[in-house]
Predict the 3D structure of the following.
Amino acid sequence: MNVDVRVQIEDFSVAAEYQALRQRMAGGMGAVASFVGFVRDQFQTDAVDTLYLEHYPGMTERSIAGIVAKAAQRWALMDVVVVHRVGALHPSAQIVLVQVASGHRAAAFAACEFIMDYLKTEAIFWKREDTAAGGRWVQSTLEDRDRAAAWTKE
Amino acid sequence: MQVSVLFFASLREVAGADAMSVNLAEHADLSVLLEALAQALGSEAAAALQAANVRVAVNHALVSGPCALSDGDEIAFLPPVTGG
């Protein structure tokens, strides 16, 4: 299985990641599912001006690789790319890409969602939302934690 | 011996620095480091570092409870993560 985890300030190109997968794809590959997350313009009731993401270089990448490894234990995956941006991001910016390729669609769909659900709760990122009222560090929501926990109940 | 200490997110703001080097006696452990940090940063910052929801990583591995330190270790104080 090919795994590529990147944490970067720069934007990413879904087309470029897809083309790169096409270049290296193996014969048994039957499906690819991609998810892209954007920065929302609202947190609760406040308009967000800037979302600032901080990470722990090295340990953050390792935490994401651990999530991918967990997904690979549940589904037969062939290629996984996770690109996560850090730094100052504005509403509508791309923030995360998860691209999962597998032999059949079910594994690609499920693993893509699984990886995102765990990224939202376990990956080592800190988010500060800067609004007109000032900046505040936020924690993962109860909904995010419920979504990740649901995978352990199946 | 000397260890490097990293602070992230809200703890970086409380500590007033993202990193610092700390000199410790040989065979010092995490509690000795916390005492040294309390001396250097003040009791308010020390209390924040010891909050129940703060996790500590030594050389990128999460630790809990007493932990022996070695020269050159990297100790990171991690507030609750937001996720991606």
About this structure: The first helix of chain B runs from residue 9 to 15.
